[in-house]
């Protein structure tokens, strides 16, 4: 309502799309509605991050689990503040550091459920190490060959897939959490062509497609929350949904 009466979308745009404001976009009901809808996934992600684990005494946790939970929460926090960061250098450093920590800390917690753990670590370091190299080249004013960047991106994607597969077979995480992670990996491949098509309708529609980028952040937060639940026998994660806070 404020956007419609004031004739400007700047404040609403900043609170829902987290992208540079396009002052040429008029304050119409369709545009306001699109922004409000785009803000819902972010609000949902914020609640998923802040709600914490299930009530009750947490199970006894080893050092590896505690470290992974801290790293997951740190990565989720970064996912929430990333759209608000204007310093791309700092954002890139935090992104690389948070994901590199997960590459190191996930395998000990997953244990035997993660097949070929050493190879999975190598794939993870290849992926996110490549991102670091690409970032360093950009600082030097150089550009990484497209085929090499594609290899690094593929390695990072493969690492995430292997972690999600191990999570699915581990009784500590629910199916919903694994689905959030899977959706977080799939959505970028869908949003790009959709944004290209919707771009003809206006910047607000194209930018709104990025709202579901928070799915990966939700996966990070829920993965941390559910590590505080009592361990369930392998293969019972679906049944454990009954005791978890549902999405």
From TrEMBL:
Chain ranges passing through the membrane: 28-47, 68-85, 91-110, 122-141, 147-166, 178-198
Protein keywords: Membrane, Transmembrane, Transmembrane helix
Organism domain of life: Bacteria
Protein name stated in the entry: Uncharacterized protein
């Amino acid at each position: 309502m404020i956007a419609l009466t004031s004739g400007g979308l700047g404040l609403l745009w900043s609170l829902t799309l987290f992208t540079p404001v396009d002052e040429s976009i008029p304050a119409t009901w369709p545009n306001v509605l699109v922004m409000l809808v785009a803000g819902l996934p972010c609000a949902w992600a914020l609640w998923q991050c802040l709600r914490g684990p299930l009530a009750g005494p947490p199970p006894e946790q080893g050092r590896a689990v505690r470290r992974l939970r801290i790293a997951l929460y740190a990565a989720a926090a970064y996912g929430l503040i990333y759209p608000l960061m204007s310093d791309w250098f700092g954002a890139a450093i935090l992104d690389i550091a948070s994901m590199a920590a997960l590459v190191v800390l996930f395998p000990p917690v997953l244990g035997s459920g993660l097949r070929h753990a050493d190879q999975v670590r190598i794939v993870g370091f290849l992926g996110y190490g490549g991102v670091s190299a690409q970032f360093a080249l950009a600082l030097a004013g150089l550009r990484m060959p497209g085929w090499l960047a594609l290899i690094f991106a593929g390695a990072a994607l493969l690492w995430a897939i292997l972690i999600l597969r191990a999570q699915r077979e581990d009784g500590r995480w629910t199916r919903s959490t694994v689905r959030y992670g899977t959706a977080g990996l799939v959505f970028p491949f869908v949003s790009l062509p959709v944004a290209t098509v919707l771009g003809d309708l206006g910047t607000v529609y194209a930018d709104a497609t990025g709202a579901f980028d928070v799915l990966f952040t939700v996966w990070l937060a829920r993965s941390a929350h559910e590590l505080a639940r009592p361990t369930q026998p392998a293969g019972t994660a679906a049944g454990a949904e009954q005791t978890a806070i549902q999405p």
